[in-house]
Amino acid sequence: MDKLDKDTLYSIAIELDLPSLLKFCASNSRINELICKRDPIWLNKLNKDFPNYKDFKLKQSKKDIYILLYNLTKLKKKLNLKQNILELYNLQELNLSNNKL
Hints:
Blueprint: H1 6-14, H2 18-26, H3 29-36, H4 39-49, H5 62-78, H6 85-90
Helix pairs in contact: 2-3, 4-5
């Protein structure tokens, strides 16, 4: 991996799902510095996977926003919830009486 240029690393990273991307970032300090600690990868993934992410009006880093939205999507699917992820994020209370965790 040390011999791959930044563009090649970026091309690999952009195709990974979040768990794989986080492992990719942790696998090498150079990859982490060149790709994962910078906003472009996270902004690209946000625009690709969550085009309405700006509706959330979040102040966190692009990476943290992506992780939050990814986890909300996983929760929504796991619990078979009807709300979209913005509605889920804005809920004051979540009734899980009919769902198994």
